[in-house]
């Protein structure tokens, strides 16, 4: 879900990918921050239950309010298939 501006992103506890994804997103974001890597800023955000009751996933399931993963969006980033991205770099084949 986009946040209050088009620069924010929220992933809810009952997202279709499962709860561990929230933990992973937070840990990777914090490690990237410590290393100074290019990664969106992450935060734990609280989503009010009344707001959550107005939002549904594409499968119709209502989102769960409460503590969620929040991050800033990054311009000019497109989702890529991991296997295609790995194969696109010849050095990755050797590893």
The amount of helix comes to 25-40%
Largest sheet: 3 strands, antiparallel
Coarse morphology? globular
Helix/strand order: EHEHEHH
Q: Mean pLDDT, rounded to whole units?
A: 80
What is the count of helical runs? 4
Radius of gyration: 16 Å
SS content category: alpha+beta
Distance from N terminus to C terminus (CA atoms, Å) equals: 36 Å
Order of strands, main sheet, comes to 1-3-2
- What is the β-strand count? 3
Q: Provide the β-strand percentage band.
A: 15-25%
Which stretches are low in confidence, meaning pLDDT under 50 for 5 or more residues running? none
Please, could you describe this protein's structure?
The termini are far apart. The protein has 4 helices and 3 strands, in the order E-H-E-H-E-H-H. The radius of gyration is 16 Å and the shape is globular. With 95 residues, the protein is an alpha+beta fold. It has a 3-stranded antiparallel sheet. The mean pLDDT is 80.
């Amino acid at each position: 879900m986009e946040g209050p501006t088009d620069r924010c992103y929220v992933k809810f506890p009952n997202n279709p990918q499962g709860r561990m994804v929230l933990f992973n997103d937070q840990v990777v974001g914090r490690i990237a921050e410590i290393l100074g890597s290019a990664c969106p800023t992450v935060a734990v955000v609280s989503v009010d239950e009344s707001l959550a009751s107005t939002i549904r996933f594409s499968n119709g399931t209502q989102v769960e309010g409460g503590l969620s993963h929040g991050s800033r969006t990054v311009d000019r980033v497109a989702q890529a298939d991991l296997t295609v991205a790995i194969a696109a770099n010849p050095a990755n084949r050797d590893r």
